[in-house]
Amino acid sequence: MRDREPTKATLAIGDGANDVNMITEAHIGIGISGLEGQQAATAADYSIGQFRFLKNLLLTHGREAYRRNTYLVSYMFYKNILYVWPIWFFGFYSYFSGTPIYDILMYQFYNVIFTGLPIIWFAV
Questions:
Q1: What does R_g of the chain's alpha carbons equal in angstroms?
Q2: Cα-to-chain-centroid distance, residue 122
Q3: What's the pTM value of the predicted model, to 2 decimals?
């Protein structure tokens, strides 16, 4: 599958020694420790104790990661719109003379304040 669709990510889930090659070849490997031994769990990127944890792992944590990524992308669009629109409107006001609307330090601090601090706040 990796050779056929190289841009797609693959997920392999296994619980025994016969699944070790599949788990190691996939982009993301999930090993389940169980009756067949620990070989799949030790070879995997992620290890869970029972099959019943698989539903929570895929449907809850996978969806939550997707939601956080979409929130981040939406925030980046919002931040860039707030950054560009005043400059664009000031261009009309100044007849596109090339006069900067902000001091050069303001451009640098804008990215620190509106990119770094919210991500730290969101992470904490």
A1: 24
A2: 14
A3: 0.48
